[in-house]
Task: structure prediction
Amino acid sequence: MNRDEQECLYTIDQKQITTLIETEETTVLVTISGKNNQPLKVKKLLPQKQLTIHEKEQIVNYIADWFDLTTDIGPFYKIVENDPLLRPLLPSLYGLRIIGVPSLFEALCWAVLGQQINLAFAYRLKRDFIQTFGHSITYNNETYWTFPKVQDIAVLTTEQLLQVKMTKRKSEYIINIAKQIANKELSKTKLLQINDMDQIEKSLVNIRGIGPWTANYCMMRCLRDPNAFPVADVGLLNAVKRFKNLAEKPSKAEMLELSKNWTGYKAYATFYLWRGNNVL
DNA sequence: AGCCAGGAGATTT
DNA sequence: AAATCTCATGGC
Result:
């Protein structure tokens, strides 16, 4: 999780994560830590008042969702054992789960602003977006940010987003998505209720600015479909090219053939290949 | 300097 | 329908 120094939604030190988590009632600053095979420890730093059971539940649920703690990755590791491409990655990545983006708005914004630009620049855009339109609190001389609120972005003009180096089109996409979420046309609950992944993808792709890549990215990291698959993802193609020692990036047909073996866990295979780039 | 980046929509064929 | 062009800015 600490692959990017510009990440401002959480900090990591001494294998401990510090982040703001928003419940319906309040915003809570927590630290999350854990040792191998032991339950995660969550500690509240702010606010000082006692949290209600309801608030605590929301925080626990958020963290469980964020780290995908309820998915059984056993079947995925069966696949990995028999997959020459994934097997070498396992020693370094063992236990890794798909780090999610529980908020639909955040997931879609992050995907849209990352379209067709290099990751370093994407992180910069995200940081500038958050630090311009999000909210922060300071604790022990450290500033912690929350992602911009749907209502705040829905009322912006494209010109206001251009100031954080967003392109005009991305500005339009993001504001439009914010508007649809703000007026309840679009919500995570509604999407999940569709329950058929192909139909969910279709309804996402119907939204301007969301193509097959963004839809699958969102299904993978927010809607938690373990089989979502951004086939044409450049990072994925480059990872396959690298780990298979190919001269060129694999074709779509090759990717589809390769991914047959990952059926049920294509999102996990994708995530492991992405992260494989960082560890091998 | 030039290619390309965790794409999508519009236009042309 | 499928191929091609345009958007647009920065990293390397």
